[in-house]
Amino acid sequence: MAKTFRWAAGAVLLLAAAAAAFWWGASAQAAPASTFVLLDGSKRTTADLKGKVTLVNFWATSCTTCVAEMPKLVATYDKYKAKGYEHMAVAMAYDPPSYVVNYAQTRKLPFPVAIDNTGAVAQAWGDVKLTPTTYVVNKRGEIVKRYVGEPDFGELHRLIEKLLAEA
């Protein structure tokens, strides 16, 4: 009995460590193949983002943290866009498209904004339910960091700079 318990406890710890390594960036995993439908009706895919450091930010107009962090995300985009940085803002399926369009236009968001009408993109990216959830993707198309809630922007900028410097 004690031996079985120790084995099970060890297995649980191993799985937890593996999950932590993925979610906190110790191990990069390929970003899921996704198609982002932008506000203008055009489409971008995960493959289109390769070669750039990309922030994929799941958000909603009804999320107070999302709205509060948006000016910092705009400033981050403005700071790094000329160096090979991209930002993909993905509005959640429950967010009314008219609200998303209004928000993006009135705030003059400078980066692509997609509406995940079906929830397929959020599902593909780990079944995202909480907003904001933000992924940092390197030039090779690998997820290197996930933030749930507003990121520490100093840390985020250091990570972006490190990834931009990579070949």
Note the run of SSEs as H and E: HEEEEHEHEHEEH
CATH domain class of the largest domain: Alpha Beta
Q: Total number of helical segments?
A: 5
Distance between the termini: 52 Å
- Record the strand order, biggest sheet: 1-8-7-4-5-6
Pfam family, one: Redoxin
Protein name: TlpA family protein disulfide reductase
Organism: Caenimonas sedimenti
Domain Thioredoxin: 25-165
What does it look like?
- One of its GO terms (molecular function) is oxidoreductase activity.
- The protein is of the alpha/beta class and 167 residues long.
- It folds into two domains: 1-26; 31-165, 3-Layer(aba) Sandwich (Glutaredoxin), CATH 3.40.30.
- It is built from five helices and eight strands, in the order αββββαβαβαββα.
- It has helices at residues 2-23, 64-80, 97-106, 120-124, 153-165; strands at 29-30, 35-37, 43-45, 53-59, 85-91, 113-115, 133-137, 142-148.
- The strands form two sheets. Strands 1-8-7-4-5-6 form a six-stranded mixed β-sheet. A two-stranded antiparallel ribbon has the order 2-3.
- β5 (85-91), α3 and β6 (113-115) form a beta-alpha-beta unit.
- The longest helix has 22 residues, at 2-23.
- The N and C termini lie far apart (52 Å).
- The model is unreliable at 4-26 (pLDDT under 50).
